[in-house]
Amino acid sequence: MAESLICKNNEEKLYHGTSVESARRIMKEGFVPDKKYNWQVKSKEGFVYLSKAYAPFYAMNAQSKSRKRAIVGTCVPKQKLYPEDDFLMRALGKPVYTQEELDKINLESYKFLWKKSLEYMGNASAKPKDIRVMGSQEFDAEGLIMTCDPVVGPENYMICGEYYKSLTKWLYEGKDHMKHPRMHEFMGFK
Question: How many of the other CB atoms lie within 10 Å of CB of 21?
Answer without folding.
Answer: 15
